[in-house]
Amino acid sequence: MDEIYNGKRAWWKEGVVYQVYIRSFKDTNDDGIGDLKGLLGAVDYLADLGVDMIWINPVLASPNNDNGYDITDFRTIMKEYGSMKDFDALLKALHEKNIRLIMDFVLNHTSDEHPWFKMAKKSRESPYYAYYHWWEEEKGNPPKRFCFFDPKGDAWAFNKATRSWYLHYFSAKMPDLNWENESVRKEMMDHLRFWLDKGVDGFRLDAVTYISKDTSWPVISDKEIKDKYRGDWSYYFSQGPKLHEYLRDLHDKVLQFYDVTTIAEGPGIVHDEALDFVKEARKELQMLYHFEGMQLGYTSSGFKRPDPKGYDLLKFKAIYSTWDKVFSRHGWGTVYLGNHDQPRMVSRWGNEQPGFRNVSAKMLITFLLTMRATPIFYNGDELGMVNIRFEDIKDYRDVETLTVYKYLKSRGEDLDAFLKDQQFGARDNARTPFQWSGEENAGFTNGKPWIKVNPNHLYINAKVQLNDPDSILNYFRKTLRLRKERLVLVYGEYQLEEPFHEHLYIYTRRMKNECVLVVLNFSSSIVPFQLPSWFSLKAVLLNNVNALQLTDAWITLQPYQALVLDCKISKDGK
Ligand code: TEU
Ligand code: CA
Hints:
Layout: H1 11-14, E1 17-20, H2 36-41, H3 43-49, E2 53-56, E3 60-61, E4 73-77, H4 84-96, E5 100-106, H5 115-120, E6 134-136, E7 156-159, E8 164-167, H6 182-198, E9 202-206, H7 222-228, H8 233-237, H9 243-253, E10 261-265, H10 275-278, E11 287-289, H11 313-326, E12 334-335, H12 345-349, H13 354-369, E13 374-378, H14 399-410, H15 415-425, H16 462-466, H17 472-485, H18 488-491, E14 493-497, E15 504-511, E16 514-521, E17 527-530, E18 537-543, E19 549-550, E20 554-557, E21 562-567
Helix pairs in contact: 13-17, 14-15
């Protein structure tokens, strides 16, 4: 293996991550909100899936302006989710099944109801004032900074008592912490240690690329953003001057003492910077997930406006191939197609139409499990769950959707168009309750769910799929097992074939004398394909449809067909 892949083997490279949006996973006390006991009860289900690491969305005390990303206490479990006892029991149960627990940790901001901020906003004299970023009134208007949840883009909110604005890159109820202040860094590291000492196996670091700010507060022009920051202001505001120093510090002072992993949320990180974060010699982080793939399929104007032409598969292939190359000698990547911030993967990259949902979900699962990177699945992907497509603003719960709606309304803009776009891109599409069964509320709760359940739970649900050998769920398990059995699928060299084919995504994975050919039809058409001249079939490892039209030289692919083919290797290694 060494000649192919220079890095060391590691559990976090060979494992598969399964993300649990706990609020919508399983409710055990009928309040309509998922909880830790619900997840505890599902440990057997997860073990049976075969996943190795569970990333749970934030479970700490929070008023839930942004579903737990707004934290008031870094060492207490959110009331709705249960108690520390429940957390400990969950961790133990997962470990007993050899499943690791990755906590979602928010370093960039707190809730405005966190005691630090409550004290800070009272007076400039408070020692906690300097825990946050402020712009005092006497200095005039603050320099333009953008807020992610607000198209008006104002990340400064005025606070009367201190006569100053505080900075919030996300909602106004989520003030950004001042990492330039050493006390803040110390406190946050202590919080991390607390959870590591409890035995958690790592962190997904929320919005971590934003923690360092340029406190000379430069005024930045639109032109500069366009020229220097590749047209993307989020890029400019991410990666402040001391980011790498802080990450190195986290490693040196905290992380290196534990056998844990880190997955940085990487908004604003482009491929040629990725190694600065995860190259072994940098001693910073282990993995990150990038956003280059997530930008596909939207028009450049409007808020998350889907491109009527859909996404461009050539670009899709180019992005994932480029990112593969980044880590060919150092570091390690991740691959994902959706999460709690994105619409459902099948609705976006596959096809949710009845005849195609099943097969396209399996095709996307095949893609994620045959790339050289740690795959991250989002709960429900194994069932082929799809967007709910709310029609009424009243059904939405997400602060992002609600804030943009309010803003557009105040300007008299086209709200119907916005709601239509949100049916594609809204984060709530992925946040509806997990579909356990065809029973009322999909078996998620006996109470009133905090967000509507998708009516399609009648036929899309875990119970039906567990009993159906042909289900997406069972295909997921089988594919995951194959990845475990064949290390070539984890570490083997990746090579894109036919980069300009408009419907097919084809690649090989090679390691020593193993070679696997992956052929994925990303379209609803029947596509004939001439096999490469070197190819000779040893075995069909996976096929997501019950047909195989294969001759010596040609395959005819059914819509969304996915094939994983073991190749015969001749003596000279070709
Ligand atoms: O997201 C950070 C982030 O970069 C967001 O702008 C993300 O791109 C956005 O949700 C897309 O619409 C993280 C969390 O994943 C997200 O759920 C939180 O809302 C956010 O941080 C604030 O903590
Ligand atoms: Ca509950």
